[in-house]
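Minutes, project check-in
Item: structure for the 270-residue chain
Input as provided by the requester:
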Amino acid sequence: MVFKYSVVRYVPSVVRDEAINLGVLLETHNPPGLYLRFLGSMSRVRRRHPDANLLALRHLSEHFQKLEHEADPNQPVFDFAKSPGVTLDILHKGSLDTSFQVTAPRATQGDDPIAELNEVFELFVAEAPSADSKDRTALAPSRFRRLVANRLRQSGLVNENRLQPQFQAAGTVQPWIFDFGQRNGSLTLVQSLVLQTIPDEAMNRALLLQARVEDVAEAEHTAPRTIAVTDEVVPESPAWKYLDHHRVKMVSVNNGDAIKALMEPELYLR
């Protein structure tokens, strides 16, 4: 099923556009419904903005609780199936240039709206790993790699005859492990890649990925076809331009049709 989601952001200064993600809204069409999950604590807001209007934050939560719903409003997930007039498009347009913004709706795919809501929440809202975590130097945090894996499996691209997880390719010194890959007359490598971070860190991830690909190409004596599944489509960013220059194909994790269109032709080659 295809759902739409938006991220709810607190923007203390609209001029500076410094945002803190507070929650996620997920919209279903059959049956119509709107699910949401918010941060359980506003401690993150207090840490970054001690002068934040916490009263307004509480009012925001109460605003959603006043809508008709079938679920317990004290739980982290709400289903506003009885409020057909509330849509993500309406909420987005009504929140432009305000301190509480609902981002433009984006598409995502899944079988269960609650599970999909939780995945999107983990990706965009949940606390990031600590600075000393090994994930900091990884190309993508573990929770994003899990999301990519779910997307590829949902698209029917992962099995013994197609993409294999934890794919090993030769390197000049030691083998490299990519999230997915396949040998099918040619070498295909698929890697999760998070670019929604500070520019220096995004560029560092792009450089690391390309360095691995070049090392594989030297060891394997063939240039692999490399696909990066990203969290954001940012064609104007330096990291994106760098990988595009080196012929790394990039696709958003939220675009299931584009993922299949990009990967399927290569996987069927004999």
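Outcome recorded: The longest strand covers residues 20-29.
No further action items on this chain.
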